[in-house]
Structures are given as structure tokens and as C-alpha cells.
């Protein structure tokens, strides 16, 4: 599942291509909205809220999309060949005189009134990359269920919005706790640092084409490793701290990576 920084980058690309422009093509290839026609409308802008994308139009409508695991938006110049996948995977086409935005494999695509956006994003916690970021609220939500596993609490977008599986594994490594440790077993200073580190990581990567956690903060920038991530995707390879082979386990259909020496807590 894309992380919040990836979704923000997607929103920026869509906004540059569409905002302020009149749509010349509108094609929503989902049964519920297949007859909807946005042609002739001006796009007011595209914004990210957590992992949700909101494309707003002048008539008071918003196109809500969510990438989840497989979805993607691609932007092409007028006349450029589309390369995001076969035609049967296309769920949306929005075009103006200069650019075409194509949504592939979008599991969530719906039109709603802009005034009703809270129906789809109102449940989200503070957005790590949004203007509503509130570390105190995020910390309270994260710790609200002490018996819950850290990994689950971090991935719950109702606590803090924007963390995906990559950041979850990396944050647990930085906190020296396995993803299965109950969040209530973290000390308050460590939990507070976990929230602040999450913010730092996403902020540092919001402009990067290739995500990194090993060099994402000033304290880490002196690292000489060529590895971009501490544990994610590194199963069987040596831990960058202690050299112990990194382990991998399936966790609710998502892989979890951790160091059995550096991180304390249950392992499943």
C-alpha cells in the first residue's frame, strides 16, 4: 500500500496537470458513475488527505480515489502513449488540452459533493503531511488501546494518517520494538519519539523519488550505508546495527520485517 508521501507526490502531479484547466475528456469506468460527465468543468485542485486523493471541480463535486495496494494515477502529455497498464485496468480518464490523467486499478473511485468530503476522510487521524497535523492528538490516539499491537496501531489511519507497511516496519525498528509488541508496553518518551519520527520520515521523503529512512534525518545523514531502508525488504540480510539476519513474517497479508536482536517483543 502506498505511503502518505507517495500519495502526496501523486496529488501534486495531478494538481500541476489539471488544476485551473477545463476538462475536455471525462471517463469514469466504474458502473456507479459510468454516465457521469465532467467535461467542460474546471478542476479547482487535487489534494491528498492521508492516503486519499480528492479532485475538486467548480460545480461543487469531488472525485474521491484511493490507491490501496494496486492503484496508480499516471499523467501524460497530450498525444503521449499511455503506459500504465492494459485498457481493461483503466478506471478513470481526465484530460484537458495539454495533459491526460489516467487512473489504473483504482479500488475506490466515487463522486460526491465537496461539502460531503468528511464522509470519506472525516474518520482519519491527524495527517502527517497535512495542515491538520497535531502530534498530541496523534499520540493519544496511538495509545488509546494499550493492548493493541504497535504495528496495527501505526497502520490504523484513524490514529495518524499516512503510515503504510514500509514505514511501520522502519518505525518499529527505530523504536527497538517488534510490530507485535502491545503499544501499552512502550514508555511514554519512546511513544512520543515514535510519533515525531514518523513525521520526520514522511517530511524528509515527500520530495524524494526514492524513499529512504537510513538517511532521512539530520542525525542519520552521516550514515555511510548504501542501504535506503533499515529492515523492510531486507530479509536474510545483516542488520545495519548488529549484523544479525533480518527476519520476515506474514502479518495479516502484509510482510513484517524486524531484527530479532535489536527489537524486543513477541514475534507473531
Uncertain runs: none
Tell me the CATH topology of the largest domain: Helicase, Ruva Protein, domain 3
Over all CA atoms, what is the radius of gyration?
20 Å
Count of discrete domains: 2
What is the count of β-strands? 10
N to C succession of SSEs: HEEEEEEEEHHHHHEE
CATH architecture of the largest domain: Orthogonal Bundle
Kindly, what is the distance between the CA atoms of the first and last residues, rounded to a whole number of angstroms? 21 Å
Could you tell me the strand content as a percent range? 15-25%
How would you state the average pLDDT, rounded? 94
Helicity level, as a percent range? 10-25%
CATH hierarchy class name of the largest domain: Mainly Alpha
Instruction: Name the shape in a single word.
Output: elongated
Q: Give, in spatial order, the strands making up the sheet with the most strands.
A: 1-6-7-5
What about the largest sheet? 4 strands, antiparallel
Helices, by number, come to: 6
Structural class: alpha+beta
Cofactor: Zn(2+)
Organism: Streptomyces mutomycini
Enzyme class: lyase
Keywords: DNA damage, DNA repair, DNA-binding, Glycosidase, Hydrolase, Lyase, Metal-binding, Multifunctional enzyme, Zinc, Zinc-finger
Notes on the protein architecture:
The chain is an alpha+beta fold and 268 residues long. The protein has two domains: 4-121, MutM-like, N-terminal (N-terminal domain of MutM-like DNA repair proteins, Alpha-Beta Barrel), CATH 3.20.190; 135-258, Orthogonal Bundle (Helicase, Ruva Protein, domain 3). The chain contains six helices and ten strands. The chain has helices spanning 4-18, 118-121, 135-142, 150-155, 165-174, 188-205, and strands spanning 25-28, 43-49, 52-57, 61-66, 72-77, 90-95, 99-104, 108-113, 247-251, 254-258. The strands form three sheets. A four-stranded antiparallel β-sheet has the order 1-6-7-5, with helices on one face. The protein has a four-stranded antiparallel β-sheet with strand order 2-3-4-8, covered by helices on one side. A two-stranded antiparallel sheet has the order 9-10. The chain is elongated. It starts with a helix and ends in a 10-residue tail after the last strand. The model has no long low-confidence stretch (mean pLDDT 94).
Amino acid at each position: 500500500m502506498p505511503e502518505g508521501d507517495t500519495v502526496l507526490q501523486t496529488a501534486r502531479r495531478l494538481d500541476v496537470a489539471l488544476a485551473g484547466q477545463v476538462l475536455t475528456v471525462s471517463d469514469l469506468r466504474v458502473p456507479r458513475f459510468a454516465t457521469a460527465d465532467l467535461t467542460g468543468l474546471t478542476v479547482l485542485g487535487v489534494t491528498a488527505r492521508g492516503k486519499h486523493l480528492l479532485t475538486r471541480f467548480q460545480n461543487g463535486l469531488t472525485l474521491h480515489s484511493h490507491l490501496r495496494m494496486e492503484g496508480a494515477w499516471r499523467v501524460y502529455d497530450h498525444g503521449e502513449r499511455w503506459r500504465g497498464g492494459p485498457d481493461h485496468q483503466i478506471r478513470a480518464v481526465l484530460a484537458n488540452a495539454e495533459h491526460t490523467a489516467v487512473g489504473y486499478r483504482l479500488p475506490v473511485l466515487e463522486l460526491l459533493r465537496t461539502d460531503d468530503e468528511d464522509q470519506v476522510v472525516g474518520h482519519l487521524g491527524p495527517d502527517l503531511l497535512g495542515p491538520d497535523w497535531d502530534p498530541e492528538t496523534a499520540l493519544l490516539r496511538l495509545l488509546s488501546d494499550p493492548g493493541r499491537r504497535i504495528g496495527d496501531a501505526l497502520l490504523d489511519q484513524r490514529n495518524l494518517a499516512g503510515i503504510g507497511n514500509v514505514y511501520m516496519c522502519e518505525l518499529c525498528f527505530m523504536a527497538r520494538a517488534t510490530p507485535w509488541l502491545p503499544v501499552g508496553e512502550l514508555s511514554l518518551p519512546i511513544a512520543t519519539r515514535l510519533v515525531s519520527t514518523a513525521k520526520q520520515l514522511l517530511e524528509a521523503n515527500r520530495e524524494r523519488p526514492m524513499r529512504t529512512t537510513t538517511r532521512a534525518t539530520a542525525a542519520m545523514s552521516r550514515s555511510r550505508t548504501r542501504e535506503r531502508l533499515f529492515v523492510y525488504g531486507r530479509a536474510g540480510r545483516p542488520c545495519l546495527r548488529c549484523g544479525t539476519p533480518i527476519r520476515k513474517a506474514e502479518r495479516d497479508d502484509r510482510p513484517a520485517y524486524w531484527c530479532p536482536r535489536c527489537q524486543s517483543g513477541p514475534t507473531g
